[in-house]
Amino acid sequence: MSLLSIADLSTHFRLPNGALRALDGVSLDLQAEETLGIVGESGCGKSTLGKTILRLVQPTSGSIRFAGEDVTTVPTRKLAQFRRRAQMVFQDPFASLNPRHTIRKILTDPLVVHGIGDKPERARRVEDIVQRVGLDAGALDRYPHEFSGGQRQRVGIARALILEPDLVICDEPVSALDLSIQAQTLNLLSRMKADLNLSYIFISHDLSVVRYFTDRVLVMYLGRVVESAPTRALWSAPRHPYTRALMDAVPDPARRRHAAPIKGDLPSPQDVPTGCRFHPRCPLATEICTRVEPTLDRLGDGHSAACHHA
Amino acid sequence: MQPESVTQFQPVPAKPSGEPPLVAVPVEATPAPSIIVPLPGLSVPAIPVPAIPLSGPRPRGAKRALATVRRNPLALAGGTILILMALIGLFAPLLFPGDPLAIVAEPFIWPGSDAAHPLGTDSLGRDLLSGIAHGAGVSLRVGLSATALGLVIGVGIGAVAGYFGGWTDAVLSRLIEIFQTLPNFVMLVVLVAIAQPSVTTLSIAIAVVTWPTVARLARAEFRSIREKDFVMAARSLGFGHGRIILSEILPSALPPLIVTASVMVASAILMESALSFMGLGDPNVVSWGSMIGSGREYLRTAWYMCALPGFAIMLTVLALNLIGDALNEILNPRSHEDRR
Fold first, then answer.
1. What is the pLDDT of residues B18-48, one digit of tens each?
2. Sign of the C-alpha dihedral, residues A295, A300, A304, A307?
3. How close does chain B come to A49, measured CA to CA in Å?
4. DSSP secondary structure letter of residue B283
5. Which residues in chain A (87-126) have CB-CB distances under 8 A to chain B?
6. Is A127 on the interface with B (CB under 8 A)?
7. Which of A237, B15, B42, B243 has the fewest CB atoms within 10 Å, i.e. is most exposed?
8. Domains detected in chain B
9. Could you give the ipTM of this predicted complex?
């Protein structure tokens, strides 16, 4: 049984000038101890997907099943139980830690809220997790502003892990960090996964990070999944023209840059193109693409793509 | 060049050619790396936190507050005046025992002409110095309790409106607007006229007309802070609304509210004085406003009766405004680069 199973999930935001379809019929499955990457341009709905899964944003339709239980519409009281098992690491470690709380309070409060342990037990757990993420116990009584970005992200990871969750959604966890710190932080996430048997949903726009870090990848475009494949298969044979364009956009010292691999900008999710959403920018687009929206078809070996020409 | 059969993931020193420093070198049929690649030199060492002296909570706030006060002697003056006024008000019953409304000497003694009554007496022969001292207590008590009550109501309503948004916000915002459209002082007069005037009812009435200002400010602060990532994190951790409002958002929303509060105390003192001047204050206690009110008929012949309590009001309000300015400088995050 898969740990997380999402069917036809949509999240629309009502704006004064019409609905913004941030997420439009996304389905995915996540096995226990699997790392699923989600890639796409800014504004394609990656972060909204993460927040919707954690019910931080209310889905418009569709269902979210976590460990066999439907959490799409659970009442607040049961939502707390779900939140204990599914956590999030945020992109910006400068914004995601309350500047007025000490690290000890930031890490202890979740335990208090969920009624875990008594005072000495909580203190023990907090000290344990801080050491696991590679911080000194002396860090506990300081404030977030006293730390560097990488250290703060360690605190952010510690906070996500203190409740011993099964699923951690990493929303661009390294994109706000220096390059040298990125590698350290990714290795920390890897080690935590092995130590604590975690499953990750790893949201990123950085393909090299995703390639290094994930087992399987979903490529999103304008609120929809356009391709889904095991990481290795995706890199050896990308099927969707958008995926190919994304990969071509990654600078590669071994290859001369061609012309711009993808033309135009991401259309507004308030004004989604007809037919295939990618057709105005697609090099392969034909007449059918302007009329019929392609479905995400299985191509074998766990590889599927939503393209008439794949 | 790195061997192409391995996917390396490590920072490469920036080269002058301007290549991207972070390179994943892919080749066809590269075996996908297992999740945990123990890259040499990139294991996770327990990174020691750089040596920051560990001496309990660091006095960063206190230190900066002191520095601000030193840079700003007006704030120091304001604080001194206010503390002096508070002490006078607090110890008035000891310094000037007896009822300040009692007739103790001849009327119309000018200040400085009688050592027993250094600030003179009013038209009924009541001691002005004793009145001003006792009045300090009344004025500050009304000012502080009205502000405290106004803050609690205003922050409560503003926080709920700003945090929950939606129709809760719509309803509460209309309520705030209704109170704001009523002329403050007229409403205050009506409220005091309905209730028996006393220090308590005066404070409540002043709080009732001043809370909307606080509520609007608190609503704006909560609206902007609730969108921050750390609030999102608190929600994802399963924190309840009460805990998020009180423990996560309120500490960050507090600075502008504290600044407003210092000005509110001043305006509450002014309101109380105005009411007392009109004879709507508590008739059983002496207040600066009522002293001015009773002296106004003799303004041309014995102006000191109005001037002395008026000076006390001016000094106190000025002190509170100076303190407000200093607090703004200390607490306003936007004026400091080390706050976010």
1. 444 444 444 444 444 444 444 444 444 454 5
2. negative
3. 14
4. T
5. 87-88, 90-92, 94-100, 109-110, 113-114
6. no
7. B15
8. 71-98+124-335 (1.10.3720.10)
9. 0.88
